[in-house]
Each structure stands twice: as C-alpha cells, then as structure tokens.
Amino acid sequence: MKLKMYATVRRYEGVKGPEAAAKKVDEVFVPLISALPGFVEYFWIDLGDGAMISITVFKSLSEAINANEKTRIWVKDCLGSVLAPSVRIEAGAIVAYKGKLDGSLRSGRA
Asked: How many percent of the chain have pLDDT more than 70?
C-alpha cells in the first residue's frame, strides 16, 4: 500500500432508533464529515440488536483527530436522543487496503 491513511472505528450500543439514526447520519452528518480536509471514506454499519459502528478514513492522523472531535460534538448535539456516547473508539494507521467501491455501490445500488 502506497497511501498512508488513518481510520477511526466507533461502536455504539443501545441505539434506540437505528433507522432514524441512519437517516440523520446519511442526510446531515455525511455531508459535514466528507467536507473536512483529508476525508477519504465513511461507513455507517447496522450490526443489529441496537448496535452500530462507524468507520471514518482520513489521509492524516491530525485530520482524523480533528474529525473525531467534531464527530463527538455532533453526535452529542444532534443524535443524543437516539445514540448513547460511543462505547468504544479505536483509531490507527491503515496498513493494508484494497477498494472497489464505485458510485453505484456507494449509493446503495448493487
């Protein structure tokens, strides 16, 4: 892998409204985080049983740290009614990567 990237994974448990959370994340949060410097990719994953995970990828560690702080504030202010604070936050350098996502997959169409 030639690119150096950094990922943050946040796990949320006890999500009261997974559909409402996903809708708000997609419509409001994704445009905000994707506009930040160094943004590469974002995923919001429904694990079922009220558990969800977000994965955010940035080009540099400092950009990932900046996004983490903005995410923490946004979740508290805008999703506090459906999401508890993240149970676990992990971040680190991506050491292997291969991707094939294109526009049709990103929009949810296979």
From this structure: 86
Task: Tell me how far apart the 2 most distant CA atoms of the chain are, in Å.
Answer: 41
The whole domain housing 62 covers: 5-106
DSSP label of 86: P
CA separation for the pair 32, 30 (Å, rounded): 5
CATH number at residue 34: 3.30.70.100
Q: Which two tokens stand for residue 70?
A: 């903005």
d(CA 76, CA 93): 26
Domains contained in the chain, number = 1
Rounded to two decimals, the pTM is 0.81
Residues in the chain: 110
Q: pLDDT tens digits, residue range 83-102?
A: 776 678 888 999 988 877 65
Beta carbons within 8 Å of 8's beta carbon, 6+ residues apart: 54, 55, 56, 58, 64, 67, 68, 71, 89, 90, 91
